[in-house]
Each structure stands twice: as C-alpha cells, then as structure tokens.
Amino acid sequence: MELVQVDKHGAWNALAVATWARRHCAFVGMCVIVNAAAVSIAAAQSRSETTEATRTVSTVERSQTDEDDDGALSLAEPDFVVVNLPTAMRLPLFKGNFRLTHRFAGNLRRGTLSQQASNLFGIDQGAIIGFEYRFAVARHVQAVFYRASFDKTIQFHGKYDGIRQRRSMPVSTSVIASVEGTDNFKEKYAPSIGVVVSRSIGTRVAVYLTPVWTGNTAASLDPIAHDHDLDEHTPTDDSLRVRRNTTVVGVGGRVRVRGSTYVAAEIVPRVAGYAPDDAAYGVSVEKRVGRHMFSLTFTNSFGTTFAQVARGGAANTLYLGFNLGRKFY
Length: 329
What we know:
Helix content: 10-25%
Radius of gyration: 36 Å
Order of helices and strands: HHEHEEEEHEEEEEEEHE
Mean pLDDT: 83
Distance between the termini: 105 Å
Structural class: alpha+beta
CATH architecture of the largest domain: Beta Barrel
Oligomer: single chain
C-alpha cells in the first residue's frame, strides 16, 4: 500500500520536497549572509580599535618624550625670564643661552611727548647694559654668570629644575641660589635664595610665583645713580653701610597672543625686611624668532639682579628697555 501510495502521490511529494528545500535553502542562505556580515563588521571594528589604540599609545609615547626632552620648545614658556624674574624653563645638558639686557636711562614719565621724542624716548640718555650666559653643567642644573653696568655688578647664580609639570604634577618647581657683588664683585655682597613655581595652561598661558629672600639689600642707603662718566669707582666706607635683608614674592605671567608673539608682566612686592620706594614691576611685548627671543620692556627700575629688583623702583618712573636672548641648541 505504501509503495502504491508513494507512486500515486509521488508527484505531490516531489513538489512538497522541492518547495521545502527552496524555503529552507533561502533561510540558510540568509543566515550565512548575516553571519558573514557580522564577522566583517566585527573584524572592521577590531581593526579600528587596534588602530585607535595604536594611535593613543603613539600619542602618549610622543607626549611623554616631549615631557622628558629638556630641549623641546614649550610654546607657553619660551624664555628663561619673565621680564627680570626667572622662569622654570629647562636647559639641555651641556647647552647654553646668551641674554643681553638694556634699560635706557630716560624717564618716560618726565617731560612732554615732544621732549621725549627729541631724546628718542630715553635712548639718547644712555643705558644700563647687562650680559648673561647660562650653561647646563648637569642634567636640570644651570650655572649662570651675569654682569650689569649698574654699579658694575656681577652676579653668579645657580638653578636646579627639580620638578616638571606633567599629568601627575600640576606645577613645575625650580630652586635658585645667587650671590652678587658691586664694583666687579669686590663689595656690597648680596646673597639670594628662592623658589620658582610655575604653571602652564595649554600652549597660551604661563603663570609664576617666585618667593626670594635676599640678604644685605641695604648695603648702602645711598641710591645707586646712573653714571655717564668714566670716573673711578669710590668704595663706600664700611661704617656707613647698613645691612638689612628683604623677602619678596614675585608674581608674573606670560600670554601667547598670536603665533610667536607674547605679552609678559611681573610685579615684585616686598613682604618683609628692607623695602624702600615702590615695588619693582615690568611689562614686555615679545617676539620669538627661531632660537632668538626679543622683548621690548617697560620697567620702573634699572635693576635686573635679585638684589637690585628687591630694592624696588622709584615712584613716577618708567624706563624703556629690551632683552635679547639666543639659545645655543
């Protein structure tokens, strides 16, 4: 009976089998296609994640390398000084930097505009000139020599850049120690010790806090006048000298306005000790060109050393000047 039934309904059974096969083959085909698409998407996503991870690692490694490279340019901190105050900028091992300072003697707050123009805004009245060279004698250690014509002052100072700002450290910190003497380092010795704490904000802004203690700032109560002649220096009698100390807390900052153009400012209030006249301050407009840094300065003092700045600036004075730095690396 089954053979007859099969034969009798063979055509119908064959049609049913063919229909079932077409439906299930289509379903199986769809499953294969969906599975292949899923595998392709997963592979693409895996490649993307691998690429992104590689880029992230590369970026981190490059950033870490820049953080560890003392010679890498910091756009927010391109110079070793603000106006007169030191920054936390590092110097590569066995490399150097030269700096030239000028503070012209004409008081921009004295006389009319035409009178100032006739003296070329103080340039015709001479200048206090200084030369500085710093050299990295060891990693993160700088030795600095500076000589200013202001009372023939020579300053030796060292700087240790111990802490550098990074992801785990919000600030950079440097320790400074100095001693200076007038008449080519023969008298009126004034030691200084202090700390520079700096914070860079992106590539645009850097701010500084610089507490410094300076000894013997009142070595002579007689003001150091700008002298245009070549007379021999007359030492001050030791009995007339008054030895006092001064503690200052300098505050400064630099803003990168556009490209390689900057504006910097600082003020150095005295918080303890000998504090004649007004706190020293300065403003500068700066341009960085390659390894050179040029700063057009406006200050209320001729002072450029730690003791000179601690002594402050005279009231109602403003002097034109400039700093010119050149990196040898």
